[in-house]
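hey all, quick one before standup. I had two proteins in the batch that finished overnight and I want to keep them in one place so we stop losing track of which output belongs to which input. First protein below, input sequence then structure tokens straight from the run.
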Amino acid sequence: MSAMGKLKIVTILGARPQFIKAAAVSSVFSSYFEEVLVHTGQHYDPNMSAVFFEELNIPGPKYHLNVGSGSHGAMTGAMLTEIEKVLEIEKPDFVMVYGDTNSTIAGALAASKLLYPVIHVEAGLRSFNKAMPEEQNRILTDHISKILFAPTQTALQNLKHEGITEGVHLVGDVMYDGILHFSKIAQEKSRILESLNLEAGSFLLCTIHRAENTNSLERLTAIVNGLNACNELVVLPLHPRTLKYMNDYGLKLADNIRVIDPLGYLDMVRLESSAKKIVTDSGGIQKEAFFLGIPCITLREETEWVETVENGWNILVGAEKEKLVEAIQQFEPENERGNYFGDGNSVGKMTKIIQNFGAEIPVRNS
């Protein structure tokens, strides 16, 4: 318990999707808990980090670890060392982590080894592809967490199949909470369509960032060739890692591909909601496309968000040129969108669960 008489939560953030989720969560938590934000620095480019804190009104992090990029081992090890120092200073009641990044597993491991209860937001997601670093991160985090907030019924079943039933709660998806709020603000405030001289429904929006695609010459070449051949205007906010590998591989984009810098969340949501279709390898953007009613073409062989595929609003094309071009030209959802992600009050449910759990744990700090 903090000096204010509130439960203290140290929240570990490091990547764009986590900043977006924190915007929905921290605005509510501030009334009930003392939340200490820790930014690992995993995403450090201003367009991938600072802009989200500014435009989404996320409180500035109390600690910025400035870890930056590197190999998985170097990055995770550096985060572990620095997060442990923060926890020794703050002595929280809980440590909260989001999703499946290196920041997620580093925060969970540091907390677990110091015997602080771990809260995992987006627990139970599985791609069933352990070659993905993200899959390893999410599995390990789930198995050492004390409170697991599952966003969907599928996630709940995944945890049950692995023998994880204690501390598991189906609360819905915090990104759905966020999109309900921020899509309205984006419609009012964003001028990205005007600044890029785009008409709604006249373009495809594409994002590529996952290591399985960027680090593979064969996969990235096939994706670029598919985009070049699709005969559609493609707006491509280019991730710094993707840009690096495209330059390394000598890949060239055709005139129908319009490259722009990475965007803030409000501009990105405005583009998503205005796109004809979305082409992506991002888990978060797959969901946002579904929430906004935009057909999604996913550059992977599997997805954690199986509901979007089963409902017919998301199609998996991997990194095959022909499949990508065909989906861009022909894929159209035939079903009404289902409701798999809660009622938009996930954060309210999370708050009550943490309060109830906190009432049962012994006081560790003053």
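OK second protein, same deal, sequence then tokens:
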Amino acid sequence: MLPILKEYKVFLQLEKSLSPNTVSAYLSDVDKLFLYLSDAHITYQEAKLAHFQDFLIDLAEVGISARSQARIVSGIKSFYHFLLITNQLEDDPTDLLELPKVGLHLPEVLSVEEINAIVDVVDLSLPEGQRNRAIIEMLYGSGLRVSELVNVKLSNIDFEHAFLKVEGKGSKQRLVPLSEEADAQIRLWHIVRNELNIQKGQEDYLFLNRRGSQLSRVMIFNIVKQLAELAGIKKNISPHTFRHSFATHLLEGGANLRVIQQLLGHESIMTTEIYTHIDVELLRDTVLSFHPRNRHLP
């Protein structure tokens, strides 16, 4: 156990007088956060509000319920409160972190116009511009999870047939078609990518930073946030918003829910139904148009 967690454990036991089970649960919550931050190459002292929000998205992706997420947030807030009162941090980065709402949550969805606005603000004159354009096209065009996106390998892309082999949760693989735009942008990025000084062991990863190393999930989160801000979009969005938008726009266009389930890599159709936002007007129009009780007889 890390020294800071040992200090925190003593604090929970002696200062808070919590039961052994509660202490264990709080430590487990912080362990989950530390694992996430470690993957993102960030220390707990450096973590900002955006990182915690992305962490919650990550929890939702692996199927952790809103109720369990809320309990984990409480544990994390307790840890940062401990750091604050012991003068190990000057400010509490979790102060504005909201508890997830228990119950069905319909996520933010971008309109096609909003996605186009984000694409339009990508500065292709910058070295990373073409990379960022390809990232947006893959998030929206293929519905990838951010964890899947950062692990995309060149060896898993079939450019001839425009398909991508994705390794999702539990190392389960699926084939995802590349949109024409994503295919084109990846090819353009590949030209720029070849000019980088690619680090040893990173040669097969599609998306790299300027130092030639694999991008982190937090870096993708920051890219999306910056582009949305430049595009003047006020919605609270993340890389996962593009995945929701991908599913929503397919559904609204008439795609079968089972097909969307396969594209997203969901084991259960119920998961697809929860993650897919359906406009209320669309539901109403569907009932009015297709239910036999609403069909006007001649």
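Flagging for whoever picks this up: The mean pLDDT is 83. The CA atoms of residues 261 and 271 lie 8 Å apart.
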